[in-house]
Amino acid sequence: MDKLLLCFLVIVNLNGAFFQGDTYRKAFVFPIESDTSFVTLFSPVQKLLKAFTLCLRAYTALSRPYSLFSYATRAQHNEILLFREKLGLYSVSVGGSDIYFKVPETFYTPRHFCVTWESSTGITELWVDGKPMVRMSLKKGYSVGAGASIILGQEQDSFGGRFDTNQSLVGDIGDVNMWDYVLSPDEISTVHAGGVFSPNFLNWQNLKYETQGEVFLKNQLWS
Q1: Whole-number Å distance between alpha carbons of 100 and 91
Q2: What separation in angstroms does the CA of 211 have from each of 39, 86, 101, 135, 178?
Q3: Could you tell me which residues come within 8 angstroms of residue 5 by beta carbon, excluding any fewer than 6 positions away?
Q4: Is 4 helix (H, G, I), strand (E, B) or coil?
Q5: In DSSP terms, which residues pair with 8 in a beta bridge?
Q6: What is the largest CA-CA distance in the chain?
Q7: CA–CA distances in Å: residue 57 to residues 7, 82, 96
Q8: CA 77 from chain center: how many Å?
């Protein structure tokens, strides 16, 4: 088989396009407000999570609330959620419970986010542009459900749907990686600087995804 086909597979159906390939130095671009434009990510791992680290980069000029990452199960639509509530305030949700982080705002600059959580202590961290916010506790003893619908660009108010235009992302998102364990501070600093530690839950460089609506894969503006 041709090497190009080995590294990039495309299957088109009537509802959208499925892709699997190298998205290195690419980003998903959401150019308009919409409740019909989104990207679904598919993890090769289907299991309960006792810990995780999620990292991504985003670039937007929005001042209203918007979703950065939405992981829903049939039992809980806010199983994992990273959400910008308003200027200077972000929320992290696990198992339907929320905590809030005050974050210094910057404008017209791509931002890097990492979220870590572990069940054994409930300790939850939010790192923004390589800097840790104050740690908090969330859902100690909980297990994040398997069989998730993982969405970029929208917040799920039900499994795989019930999107709200006023919570949609307008801008770019990329470098989405996820591990089923907590990265160390040194590892998070390396990821922020552009390194990757073999993400085993979602791997941006070998991502399987489906696009719907007005979403485009373009060169990263932060490369």
Answers
A1: 4
A2: 5, 27, 30, 34, 19
A3: none
A4: helix
A5: 21
A6: 51
A7: 23, 12, 24
A8: 15
Distance of alpha carbon 220 from alpha carbon 53, whole angstroms:
22
Structure tokens at 49: 């999570």
Name residues whose C-beta falls within 8 Å of residue 191's C-beta, 6 or more positions apart in sequence.
Answer: 55, 114, 177, 183, 197
Angle ∠(212,216,219) on CA atoms, nearest 5: 150
Total count of residues recorded for the chain: 223
Strand partners, 60: 171
pLDDT of residue 8: 38
Task: Quick: pLDDT tens for 93-149.
Answer: 999 999 999 999 888 899 999 999 999 999 999 999 999 999 999 999 999 999 999
Q: Which residues pair with 174 in a beta bridge?
A: 57
Q: Specify the 3-state DSSP secondary structure of 5.
A: helix
Quote the CA–CA distance of 114 and 192 in Å, as a whole number: 8
Q: Are 143 and 48 in contact (CB under 8 A)?
A: yes
